[in-house]
Amino acid sequence: MTQEEELHPDDVQQHLREVQDLLARQKAVENLVSQQDVPRHEMVESLVHKQQQAELAAKLEELHSADIGYILEALPLEERLYVWNLIKAERDGEVLLEVSDAVRESLIESMAPAELKAAAESLDADELADLAPDLPPEVIQDVFQSLDPEGREQLRAAMSYPEDSVGALMVFDMVTVREDVSLEVVLRYLRRFEELPDHTDKLFVVDREDHLKGILTLECLLINDPEKEVAEVMRSETVISFTPEDEADEAAQAFERYDLVSAPVIDSEKRVIGRLTVADVVDYIREESEAEILSNAGLREGEDIFASVWDSVKNRWAWLAVNLVTAFVASRVIGLFEGSIEKLVALAALMPIVAGIGGNSGNQTTTMIVRAIAMGQVEPSAMKRLLKKELGVALFNGIAWGGLLGVLAWWLYGSVSLGLVMTGAMALNLLLAACAGVIIPMLRERLGADPAIGGSVMITALTDSGGFFIFLGLATLFLL
Amino acid sequence: MTQEEELHPDDVQQHLREVQDLLARQKAVENLVSQQDVPRHEMVESLVHKQQQAELAAKLEELHSADIGYILEALPLEERLYVWNLIKAERDGEVLLEVSDAVRESLIESMAPAELKAAAESLDADELADLAPDLPPEVIQDVFQSLDPEGREQLRAAMSYPEDSVGALMVFDMVTVREDVSLEVVLRYLRRFEELPDHTDKLFVVDREDHLKGILTLECLLINDPEKEVAEVMRSETVISFTPEDEADEAAQAFERYDLVSAPVIDSEKRVIGRLTVADVVDYIREESEAEILSNAGLREGEDIFASVWDSVKNRWAWLAVNLVTAFVASRVIGLFEGSIEKLVALAALMPIVAGIGGNSGNQTTTMIVRAIAMGQVEPSAMKRLLKKELGVALFNGIAWGGLLGVLAWWLYGSVSLGLVMTGAMALNLLLAACAGVIIPMLRERLGADPAIGGSVMITALTDSGGFFIFLGLATLFLL
User: Fold this and answer.
1) Which residues does chain B have within 8 Å of residue A250's beta carbon, measured at their own beta carbons?
2) First vs last Cα of chain A: how many Å apart?
3) Type and span of the H or E element at B204
4) Helical spans, DSSP H, in B337-345
5) For residue A6, is pLDDT > 80?
6) Which of 1.25.60.10, 3.40.50.10860, 2.40.128.110, 1.10.1060.10 is the CATH number of B11-160?
7) How far apart are CA B454 and CA A361, in angstroms?
8) Where is the CBS domain (chains A, B) (predicted)?
């Protein structure tokens, strides 16, 4: 690669196309040979094939492991495994870290225990901890045995923290310095490194027992006179640090708020035990918002787009089952009023409007509340105020949209009282939606559940059944 | 602050509580005084008041501007403006950058043009460009006049790029060095700086005309022998750079994929014109996923949780209007079959199940497809394969869940043929949902629209009307 060929963001798609081309050419040759069905072609084929394989392997070798991960994600299973086998064994570990859970599963399934062990051994303790849940227990056991005592301790620590904690995200490699040396000494010390840990934007200043005394940013190190002592230029006040027990979500917000690149992780005695970097935080933010979007649509996890029908069915069935139950309940509510519908069939045509708008409005409310809770902005005192506001919005919408629908119902069916029932039912159902939209996420938060997940099913269930009940009930009372 | 008081991620909530306490105490004194209604208290009140105000101002002064932004977001309008007025004028600009659009609007409304001008003048060109859309035109004009020619050029450039481009995110401050100097010279050069630009993890190596020749990471600068020349140790191959026209989304993916902290932005002649940093990318990622979650729930933008009812109504009406139209269409579809419902009222109770499950299933499909498109993994060739898979899932679910519902309908209403119609309608509507779930986002992508936005309304509209039509149509054909 010459300097002219700089890596542009769309290059990874270029890489993907090149790999796909190579695979297609390979397939074309294979097809040609199999059509001819002549044994003497075997040698030719195998030569061409080997050449193409070598070309593909060379192409893969020059790619960043993240790009290889991307390509593996985009290939159907058969081609994915073919490419996977062409990747050098020593890169297996880092590539496994780059792919999604679903694709990782498909790759790990294709590997022998010995290969897996070799791949795992090429990783740091924190990376290994990320991979461990997907590895067979005997492989983990083997890898664990092969670690040095410090590595074992780190792996044990990293695996012991819950998934959404700082401990699960932290890395162990870092550079620490003492406060009583000059910057010149630090500069000379750094020159002894082959490389610095990723995302080193600051060095941690510690004492003999690893207690955090302050931080020395590389900036500070570079702009100050090398004669100065570390203690003179380090920052010891308002150092942002985390404990492994802190929630990853709060750490992510702190990284965003204070534009951090890395931060020390300390134990209860202020000893530095690890480091949190922006790369892990960015991955976490992306994964969290993915999870929220997926769960809003009722998907348990991301799917390999080339997964089998059966894998997809398993990923999606739980949500459909819940919806089936709530839809069935709503259906039984309608069943209660079959007599009324028989007398006035217009009710059947109008009732889904009341239920549907209620659900949409409730989801708008709950999304706002969940956002506000996630930002930590909803104190109990704010709840009353929010409820009042949401009820205000619902009342306005109920009268405005309900009124419009009332007029439409009157026009369609020539009955003023049907129109009035429609308006009243809309207003009441929107008020119900507003209450549910505020209270459900707040309650879930107070009960320690993630307010973002599953709220929309509950609200829709309530506004469906509630909407049918309110509309058909009012109609039965006033129209029949 | 002593070293003991380290900043922890939950500290910002602590700050918020302290500010709220101070505000509450102030209010308590005011209430007490106003109850007494005696003029001689006026002086006392004003003394106490002034003291409290000073305490609050001092508290605010020691906070990071991001934390002040957070506190402003969490306060109701009246208290928010009170706190805002206590913030030193020279910090106004940076705080305005930290708050959400909705809150920024409320703050800017409260400021006089001269104050706004002062606040704006304290910002860099790229920050100013972010703020500009919210400022009154005459203020922008004034600020523009006060800039030096380079600043004007930068501001003009920053404002000329579309919102979701790299140009809109880039910053202009950076450190560049020449390739023919020694690292020792670079180190001495850096010592002349008071501070380095935020997120400087690499220096850009340029020639006399600012053409990018390579990058020199701070790591490289620190670990290498200072006698070496920049050209010896800089990286000139596979340098990841962007152009201002690149899409921000692609840049964000590249930052994630390659774990970047900063990257050069170059023009068409490879001259370095700016820099993209991870802080801006993280903000962008968060804003994008927020926007997706909000728009999924039919909200145009984030709401200030203390906004007026009227502001909320304006933010939400468009989505409700669209839903009203689609619900009305579905209602007219039912209207077509009123005769059938009159004869067999069980249809009215069962039809929402068919429509509802179809909508949920379609949303699952479309969410998967939108994810895959966002990852750039869906090539035209993959479309056929995906459609086949989704139809497979739909057929399976249709038979399984449809069969279950058919049995339930049979059990409830004692009619085998009603059960069979139910099963058939479920299967057909799920197949419709699967087709729509694949095709709608793909078409939107091809037409240049954001596939993530608004897809769910269209699918729900289709599966509602389609579900009613299929179920009532089959019932009319086979049962009556």
Assistant:
1) 9-10
2) 82
3) strand B202-206
4) 338-343
5) no
6) 1.25.60.10
7) 15
8) 170-232, 234-292
Give the span between the Cα atoms of B246 and A10, in whole angstroms: 9
- pLDDT exceeds cutoff 60 at A470: yes
C-alpha distances out from residue A22 to A26, A59, A65, A81, B382, Å: 6, 10, 19, 15, 17
Name residues whose C-beta falls within 8 Å of residue A357's C-beta, 6 or more positions apart in sequence. A401, A426, A429, A430, B320, B323, B324, B327
Please tell me if residue B171 touches chain A, with a CB cutoff of 8 Å: no
Which of B397, B400, B465, B471 has its CA nearest to residue B436?
Answer: B465
Inspect the interface and report whether the beta carbons of B9 and A251 lie closer than 8 Å: yes
pLDDT < 50 stretches in chain B: 1-7
What percentage of chain A carries pLDDT values higher than 70? Answer: 94
List Cβ<8 Å contacts ≥24 apart for B415-418.
B415/B346, B415/B479, B417/B478, B417/B479, B418/B344, B418/B346, B418/B350, B418/B475, B418/B479
B240 touches chain A (CB under 8 A): yes
> Which among A5, A320, A331 has CB closest to B349?
A331
Residue found by looking up tokens 């739909």 in the block = B394
Q: How far is Cα of residue A78 from the mean position of the Cα atoms in its chain?
A: 27
Residue A459 has pLDDT above 80, yes or no: yes
> Which residue, A67, A66, A91, A94, is CA-closest to A11?
A67
Would you call A305 and B382 a contact, using CB atoms and an 8 Å cutoff? yes
Q: What is the mean pLDDT of chain A?
A: 87
- Please name which of B402, B460, B452, B403 lies closest in space to residue B433, comparing C-alpha atoms: B460
Q: What's the topology of domain B309-479? A: Tetracycline Repressor; domain 2 (1.10.357)
Do B346 and A348 touch, CB atoms closer than 8 A? no
The Cα–Cα gap between B306 and A385 comes to 8
- H or E segment and range at residue B217: strand B212-217
* Token pair belonging to A96: 């496994």
pLDDT of B43 reads 56
ipTM: 0.84
CATH of B176-296, one of 3.10.580.10, 3.40.50.150, 1.10.510.10, 3.50.50.60: 3.10.580.10
Residue B473 burial by Cβ neighbours in a 10 Å radius (0-12, 13-18, 19+): middle
Percent of chain A with pLDDT over 90: 47
Q: Which of A95-109, A371-385, B256-270 has the highest mean predicted lDDT (pLDDT)? A: B256-270
Polymer length of chain A: 480
Tokens of A286: 């992306």
B196 contact A CB<8A:
yes
Give, as one character, the DSSP assignment of residue B55: H
Domain A11-163 identical in fold to domain A176-296: no
Residue B66: closest CA among B96, B89, B86: B96
CB contact under 8 A, A303 and B368: yes
In angstroms, rounded to a whole number, what is the distance separating the alpha carbons of residues A184 and A49?
A: 57
Instruction: Quickly name the fold that domain A11-163 has.
Output: MgtE N-terminal fold (1.25.60)
A185 in reach of chain B (CB within 8 A): no
Chain A CB within 8 Å of residue B396 CB: yes
CA–CA dist B276, A206 (Å, integer): 32
- pLDDT tens across A278-295, in order? 999 998 988 888 888 888
Q: In this structure, what token pair is assigned to residue A43?
A: 């040698």
